[in-house]
């Protein structure tokens, strides 16, 4: 992963007056990184992406893409960006091939080979009119146009919406390929298991404000998790209730269940001293972490 940020937001704000936009958003995305961008509906994800793409004007703050001012950048930088919007709108009377070739000409790049390759991989009929295609097949066109010109930066807003499991698997392979060649990817999705699988870091926003930016692994380390301790005989919960970072200690026969935040060192030391037989840790998913952070902020 490169050390110079490919995407950089610095106190970026978009105000719609009384309506919510984004407020003081700052983070970076690096080359060779898939970066998850998460939030509930209406949190400001799409506003942030559209502002970075120059589709709407920022109220304040700044942003850079590939070292260039993203808010006033030239078409030459846009040609190095792949963008798949969440609300995909396509020319109904074109065939898939006609539309993709049209996009190629706009970018002044010959994408013929990759159009054919990606269409084959995603099982898309290039010769049917878009008006005849299902939502899933239209989404495949959106995916292809975002990837086909070998962009250095990709903004993907709900990219697997409508895709069948086979196309989703191929999309993930395509994403790994662009990551391997050093592209920076900003991935917004409501499928949190997908983000957990594909991304290493995430930003979570709610009501236009940034809640956290961190490694998924670090978020899991900081999050509440449940541990089951199995003993050869019933044991008193009093041994565990005073341990820092331990709460909700429950005894069920020979089983002690507790909730842990932070290091487990003292807990496991006490368990070993009392002849623990086995230990099971239930790690939180990204979805559980997301819900906890958003609900905590709302509360």
UniProtKB/TrEMBL annotation:
Keyword Ribonucleoprotein: no
Cross-referenced InterPro entries: AAA+_ATPase, ABC_transporter-like_ATP-bd, ABC_transporter-like_CS, ABC_transporter_ATP-binding, P-loop_NTPase
MF-aspect GO terms: ATP binding; ATP hydrolysis activity
Family annotation (PROSITE patterns): ABC_TRANSPORTER_1, ABC_TRANSPORTER_2
Keyword hit for Nucleotide-binding: yes
Transmembrane segments: none
Pfam families: ABC_tran
Homology family: Belongs to the ABC transporter superfamily.
Protein name, per record: Unannotated protein
Native source species: freshwater metagenome
């Amino acid at each position: 992963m490169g050390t110079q940020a490919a995407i950089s937001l610095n106190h970026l704000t978009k105000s719609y007056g009384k309506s919510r936009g984004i407020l003081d958003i700052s983070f970076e995305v690096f080359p060779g990184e898939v970066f998850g961008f998460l939030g509930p509906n209406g949190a400001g994800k799409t506003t942030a992406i559209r502002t970075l793409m120059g589709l709407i004007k920022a109220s304040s703050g700044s942003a850079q893409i590939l070292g260039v001012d993203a808010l006033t950048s030239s078409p030459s930088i846009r040609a190095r960006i792949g963008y798949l919007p969440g609300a995909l709108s396509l020319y109904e009377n074109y065939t898939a091939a006609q539309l993709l070739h049209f996009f190629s000409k706009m970018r002044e790049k010959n994408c013929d080979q990759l159009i054919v390759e990606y269409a084959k991989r995603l099982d898309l009929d290039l010769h049917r009119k878009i008006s005849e295609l299902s939502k899933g097949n239209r989404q495949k066109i959106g995916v292809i146009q975002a990837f086909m010109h070998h962009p250095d930066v990709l903004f993907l807003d709900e990219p697997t919406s409508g895709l069948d499991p086979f196309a989703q698997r191929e999309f993930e392979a395509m994403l790994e390929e662009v990551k391997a060649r050093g592209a920076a990817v900003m991935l917004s999705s409501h499928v949190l298991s997908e983000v957990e699988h594909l991304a290493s870091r995430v930003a979570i926003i709610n009501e236009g404000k940034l809640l956290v930016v961190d490694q998924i692994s670090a978020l899991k380390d900081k999050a509440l998790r449940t541990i089951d301790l199995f003993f050869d005989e019933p044991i008193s919960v009093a041994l565990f209730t005073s341990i820092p970072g331990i709460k909700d200690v429950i005894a069920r026969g020979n089983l002690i269940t507790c909730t842990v935040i932070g290091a487990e060192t003292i807990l496991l030391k006490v368990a070993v001293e009392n002849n623990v037989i086995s230990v099971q840790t239930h790690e939180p998913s990204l979805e559980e972490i997301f819900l906890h952070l958003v609900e905590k902020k709302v509360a």
